[in-house]
Amino acid sequence: GLVGRRSVFAHNVHPTHDELVDLAAAGAGVAHCPTSNAALGSGLFPLRTHVEHGVRVALGSDVGAGTGLSLLKEGLQAYFMQQLLAGEGLPLGSAHLLHLATAAGADVLGLGDTVGQLSVGHDFDAVWVRPPTGSTLDVALRHARSEEDALAKVFALGTPTDVRATWVGGCPVKADPTRLPDPYTAAL
Fold it and tell me: Model-level pTM?
């Protein structure tokens, strides 16, 4: 009775079939923390196996062994880890990474009805990525072939310094007024 829909387990790098069946039956979630797994050398996260068993998975960060809190960095590492699993991994595109960092995270935390997506009835929680002019990410985004390609470039090259503003519940919580366009400056 200790494992339920509100349970979120970190890592789960070496699950057994029976453990995955139990997690799925209980509706529990798993936070995939790839930089921590890499730093510890604990193994590669079997995302495909979790998904096939119906276990809810979201992207997470673990600074106990990881290297920071950036879900952009965690997303890139998740992509790399799945590539390393040669045939066993679940290939991830940038849309998958965005889902794991947003809607899946909200769902695993039991907040999917209020946050995690830009929809009517959901709180406006958002990060505005706008790199400094001339930076590597700025140049890459100017040459993106599509929205998917631009998102991939954000995950591959983005850092916290590329975040101009963050909103939680519609309120700005991190903003650099010197980098915001005029209509936004007045709101801050």
Answer: 0.88
